[in-house]
Amino acid sequence: MRELGKHGGDRKSEKAKDQPCNTSLKYGTVPHFLARLTRDRPDLAAQVQAGKLSANAAAIEAGWRKKLSALEQILRLLPKLTPEERTPWYMNLQRTSRRS
Length: 100
Description:
The protein is an all-alpha fold.
């Protein structure tokens, strides 16, 4: 597993320019959160590595991500539906809105 460097520090000297870059740890991925948990929250990292907690749940607990509401999840996924998937969803939505 790749490690994240310490916060701040030397970024201008020749020594710093020769150090490996962390750009392979894309934000929001499991490897990124594991590296960050290992550096900043070893207690949560241990729970993730033991299989007691997911990396996403640990990131939410650490305050780095927020838990999406059901509506936020729907709005995020809706554009990914194909037209064939949208039609029954839309018909069901119309039926339930008439009952209200």
